Input
Amino acid sequence: MCQECGYESPKWMGRCPGCGQWNKMVEETEVVGTGRRGAFQHSASTGVAAKATPITSIETVSEPRIKTELVELNRVLGGGVVKGSLVLIGGDPGIGKSTLLLQVSHQLAKIDHSVLYISGEESLRQTKLRAERLGISSENLLVYSETNLEEISRTIEKNSPDFVIVDSIQTVFHPEVTSAPGSVSQVRESTAELMRIAKTNGIAIFIVGHVTKEGSIAGPRLLEHMVDTVLYFEGERHHTYRILRAVKNRFGSTNEMGIFEMKEKGLEEVANPSEIFLEERSQGASGSTVVASMEGTRPVLVEIQALISPSSYNNPRRMATGIDHNRVNLLMAVLEKRVGLLLANQDAYLKVAGGVKLDEPAIDLAVAISIASSFRDKPTRSTDCFIGEVGLTGEVRRVSRIEQRVQEAAKLGFERVILPENNLGGWTAPKGVALVGVSSVGEALKVTLEG
Output
């Protein structure tokens, strides 16, 4: 069985036909059992056959949300924790996954919810030391160090907690599956059992997942399909800021982003991330622009930096961090064809400051202006903010939620916003902000670099 994608084969192969990876096929004994395993299946399999029901006769009930003290986490989850949900949190080693979940456990325990924290990687004393460092102490927070899934199921049945945290799913094993912990079979069976426990008993379960060197959660993609919500904890261990974003959420939006700062007492949420991303911006430097990007329902101002320099190679280099490099190539082609900038023999390096990843079309204009600014070595105004999508014919197209973007720019002291001309009507701009509508990239360059 391939340890990357879960492809099954009756014999060993050097290269997996499913994902193309080499030396990932590991022999695993498949267990064929009768019925469902687990101590919690008495209510799930009652012996009564289910019947199809017309959708019009089904009564809908709004899912109650349990809010934590971390507003950023509540936003990413869609408003709070849903009972009976299974949430998977992935991230690099040392990024702060265990710290975040231990803090959340303490916050839920303080409001009279029983929480069972299951650690398969640390002993009880190690968990206690971490809790003391974070200032965590509550009678409602139970700590349990175990990796055997059957023992974990019995402990959950005995204590009947409201919340369960499993750290991590790669260390948990089912004794009836003969393969090693962390293998495809073990991860699949363990997650399926935890999902049945969560759904049958209405217990919200958080599970921690390790990530591969490519940045994806280790194990088959089936793991992400089985859970209700998949959260990625991003950032670098050598920087204090962490970004929590949802890539799958059955109870809310997948576009939300939460920002935290790692401090001595644990993770603290960042209320105004725009200030964080712009605090070290250089004044009067060419190739630097600011864009108002939407991350879910929140506008965030981010600096985009570009460095354009003559290439010494036949094939100029194109590198981008935080932006899709294919989008950079497209915008450079538009600038060359529609504006007349000779960029074919230029190396291009682009970066989104602060480690944020931007993928919405509204950043196109800011990227194009930063490329042109670096190429001409002319800085833009430090009080300018750029919003707009760029088409292949060089036109600047309208974007959504323009009012929220402009209000965020006004809040941080920006005096002028360059935006699509079609976004000007139907709303009132904040005081102190001049709106400049443009219909093409060439017009935007005249306003910013030549005006």
